[in-house]
Structure formats: C-alpha cells, structure tokens
Write a structure and sequence with these properties.
The structure holds two protein chains of two kinds. Chain A is an alpha+beta fold. Chain A has helices at residues 2-7, 9-31, 38-67, 72-107, and strands at residues 117-125, 133-136, 149-152, 155-164, 167-172, 179-184, 190-196, 199-203, 216-219, 231-240, 247-253, 262-266. Among the domains of chain A are: 2-31; 117-268, Rod shape-determining protein MreC, domain 2 (Thrombin, subunit H, Beta Barrel). Chain A is 35% helix and 29% strand. The longest helix of chain A is centred in the middle third of the chain and has 36 residues, at 72-107. By secondary structure, chain B is mostly helical. Chain B has a single domain (3-22, 31-163), classed as Orthogonal Bundle (Arp2/3 complex 21 kDa subunit ARPC3). Helices cover 78% and strands 0% of the residues of chain B. Chain B starts with a helix and ends with a helix. Classes of the chains: A alpha+beta, B mainly alpha. At the A-B interface, helix 2, helix 3, strand 1, strand 2 and strand 8 of A face helix 1, helix 3, helix 4, helix 5 and helix 6 of B.
C-alpha cells in the first residue's frame, strides 16, 4: 500500500489539493467569503491596471478634447438647451424639497441629509468569470471607504468592497455575492435583490405579491448603504411555482454595467 | 515553463484580463485569458504542471475578484489536467482542433460555475446566461487562445518561456 502511494504521489497530492479547494468553497458558502491577501493583490493589480490603461486614457482624452472638436459647436447648442431645461426642473425640485423639509418638520421626521460624492474612473472590469467586479482609480485618499454606494445618473452600480489609497474594488450588483434591499416603485412591495452574473433575482417575494414585467425596482434604503429611491433594475421575467411560497423574479440592471467609464461614489 | 514565466503570469493575469482586454469586449463579451493560458500550458507541459498552474492562477483570480476562494482554482486546475492529457495523447500545438477544444473547456468552466451558483444560491437564469454569455464567450476565448498558441509556437517565443528540458522534448 505505501509503495502504491509513493508511486502515485503526484496524483495523490493533486487530489488532496482539489479536495482542499472544494472544502474551501463549500466552507465559504456557509461562513461567507474569505478576504485572505485581498489588499496586496488589489494593490499590485491596481498599479498595473493604472499603468496599462494610462496610454488609452491619454489618447481617449486627447481625441475628445482636441481631435474631435468638429462636433463641439453642435454639442454646445444641445447642452445649452439641456441646461435651460435642467435649471427649470431644478427650481421646481428645490421648491418640492423645501416643502418636503417643512412637512417633515411638522410631522417630526428626521431631516434629510444632503449626499456628497466623489467621481472615479473605471480602470478595470471583470477579472474572473465567476464574479462581477470593477476597479476604480480613487480610494481611501479621496474619502472612499468599504461599503459606500456606487452609482451613475442611470441608477445603482454596486458598493465598494475594498478600498486602498489609490484604488478601490467595487462589487457590482450582478455579482453573486451582492445583495440589495429594494422595493417595487409601483406598489412598494419589498424584496432582496441578489446578483446572478448578468441579471439579478428578487428573493423572498411572496407568491401573492403583484409583480409584473417592466416594473422598476428602486432602493428601499433599509440596508443602510444605498439612499432610498435610486433606480436599480427593471423586472424582465416573473415565474410562479405552486410548490413554493415565493415567486422567481428576474431583473435587468438599470445601468449598462459593461459600458461604464465613470461612476459616482457616495461618500456620505 | 520557466519559473519567471509563471511569476509574470501570476503578477499580470488580473490587470491584463481586467483592463487590457476591456477594449476587446464585443457587446460586453470578452475572451477569458486565464483559461486560454492554462490550456496552452497544458498542451506544452502536461497535466501535473498545468493543474498546479491552473490552481495558482485561479487562486490569484479568486483573491483579486469577488469569487469564493477556490472556485476558479478548482475549475482552472481541472482544465489544466484536461488540457495536459489532450496535449499528451491527442493534440499537437498546431492542430486547428484547438479552437474547438479550448471553446469547449471555456464553456465547461462557465457551466460548472453556473451550476454551482444555481445549487447553492438558486434562481440563476441558466438558459439566458448560456445563450447570451457562456457560448459567445467560449467561442471568443477559443479564437483568442488559438491565436496565442500560433504566436507562441514560434521557436524564439517558446525558448523565452520554456525550460530547456521541455524544449528538447
């Protein structure tokens, strides 16, 4: 028997390694993901990512600022019109905000805190087929910390998973490890949105809840990470199975996560 | 392969995949460099070395992303074993069948990951994921890997990367 083991030592070592890996994965399903060596690996990869993307960013920025100036005049006219429209909308929103604050005070509700944000550029995306993450070029030196919300004008992108001085790793809302408290905008039904690689699934929605394709899911603010009311995803498929008490709801993120270039990190 | 080749791979695999490959993305689909590399290592070195290389590269990917530690290490390790046996018994480096085999390996990896997620977390839109992501990604990876293999097949590139004993073989 020992002779057999010695003859096939390589095979046994590989088998043992596979068993260790498998045990590690199943252990983390129960206990949560281990963050062993995450900082050093992010620091090294972040450094190379900045170096690799710098020439592309330089060329892109030069092209946008100097080469493609032909469209600038037309763009300027369009932006002026947009600005006028937004000014009008802003003054209406301000009025509503003031009214909202006054009513909150009358009802004894806590005051709304203004949001502050940092803009960051995406320097890398999806380094592994089994997860959905991206790296941004700002980190703790710019006030970005773990669990801060990351958004764009179109809606929620995800949250900061790890932050180092010049780099931060963002867990996208489609990552299997991402969960987010949401509510259906139309009827205020609540649920927990989990990432499923390219789509998301709304969990723990009662069999009898009224959820339809096309419903917009917004943040409920219950998780303490995302402010209330931000667009998150649109329902694309609802299926009910009589054997379970819940229904399966699949949703598509409101933000085109594969085309992101800049994001806002909500620092407060 | 030379030790310094492995060190270089471990050091730059994440940044190259995540940043340099982003411009190669077509409708959000980009090739998977890691499995292409492990496939090539398998063909060139054999199952044991490719398995260990796959585990190491996968572990670095797991740490650098948000995967459970061991997930990519397991799938890439298995891919290394498969590619190693293919290289020893069936295929040669210049065979055009490499596109099909590499695409199959990439598809298998995607399926294993999706099945795992379905088993432990549930509600993965499996069919839509297969059609819109896994199959196109596998084809793209197969093409990229074969291009890389053709490039590496040149003697001067090979001598830079391989140990002398393996070159003689």
């Amino acid at each position: 028997m020992p002779g057999f083991i010695v003859r096939h030592a390589k095979l046994f070592i590989l088998l043992a390694l596979f068993l260790v890996m498998f045990w590690l994965v199943t252990f983390q399903v129960k206990a949560g993901r281990l963050t062993f060596m995450e900082g050093p690996v992010l620091a090294i990869s972040g450094f190379f990512e900045r170096v690799f993307t710098a020439p592309f960013r330089f060329v892109g920025s030069a092209a946008n600022h100097y080469v493609f100036r032909v469209r600038t005049s037309r763009e300027n006219d369009r932006l002026k019109q947009e600005l006028d429209r937004l000014r009008l909308e802003n003054s209406i929103t301000n009025e509503l905000l003031i009214e909202n604050e006054r009513l909150r005070e009358v009802l004894g509700f806590a005051k709304l805190r203004p949001l502050s944000s940092v803009m960051a550029q995406v320097i890398a995306k999806d380094s592994s087929p089994s997860s959905r993450t991206m790296i941004v070029d700002h980190g703790t030196t710019h006030g970005i910390e773990k669990d801060m919300a990351v958004i764009t004008a179109a809606g929620v992108v995800g949250k900061v998973q790890t932050s180092l001085p010049g780099t931060a790793k963002v867990l996208l809302l489609t990552d299997p490890g991402s969960t987010l408290a949401v509510r259906v905008q139309r009827n205020r039904e609540e649920g927990l949105l989990e990432g499923k690689l390219d789509r998301c699934a709304l969990k723990y929605v009662s069999y009898y809840a009224d959820i339809q394709e096309g419903d917009l899911l917004v943040t409920s603010g219950l998780d303490g990470i995302y402010p209330k009311g931000l667009p998150v995803a649109t329902v694309v498929k609802v299926s009910k199975h009589e054997a379970t008490a819940f229904q399966t709801v699949i949703a598509k993120p409101a933000v085109g996560l594969s085309r992101l270039e800049e994001v806002l990190v909500l620092t407060k | 392969m030379k030790t310094r080749t492995y060190l270089a791979i471990l050091l730059v695999i994440i940044p190259v995949q995540a940043s340099l490959f982003s411009p190669l993305s077509l409708a959000g689909i980009k090739p998977d460099l890691a499995i292409a590399l492990i496939y090539i290592i398998g063909l060139l070195t054999g199952p044991t070395e490719a398995c260990l290389a796959g585990m190491a590269v996968g572990l670095v990917q797991d740490i650098g992303s948000a995967s459970l530690l061991g997930m990519n290490a397991t799938t890439l390790g298995l891919a290394g074993v498969g590619a190693g046996y293919l290289g020893r018994r069936v295929l040669d480096i210049a065979s055009p069948m490499n596109v099909i085999f590499l695409a199959s390996f990439s598809l298998m990896q995607g399926l294993v990951i999706s099945l795992f997620l379905q088993t432990f977390y549930g509600a993965v839109p499996f069919f839509s994921l297969l059609i819109t992501r896994l199959v196109p990604e596998a084809v793209y990876t197969g093409l990229l890997g074969t291009f890389l293999l053709r490039f590496m097949n040149r003697r001067n590139v090979m001598s830079l990367l391989m140990r002398r004993s393996l070159l003689k073989e």
